[in-house]
Amino acid sequence: xxxxxxxxxxxxxxxxxxxxxxxxxxxxxxxxxxxxxxxxxxxxxxxxxxxxxxxxxxxxxxxxxxxxxxxxxxxx
Length: 76
Hints:
- This protein is mainly α.
- Helix content is 39%, strand content 8%.
- It has helices spanning 11-16, 36-46, 55-67, and strands spanning 22-24, 50-52.
- Strands 1-2 form a two-stranded parallel ribbon.
- Strand 1 (22-24), helix 2 (36-46) and strand 2 (50-52) form a beta-alpha-beta unit.
């Protein structure tokens, strides 16, 4: 997949097409609206896709899913 600045198809296209149910995108030191991370988080939210920005939260979600024997499909 191409990087966002390299044209299509890229991650933003895939999010808009509904090809993801969950995005894990940690926040970098660069917080301006031109950063790829900001664009990914914004697109995920606009498309109604769950977006986690913390590895601790992601780890807790994975542990919870493992403990309850749920698959990722249950996040729909």
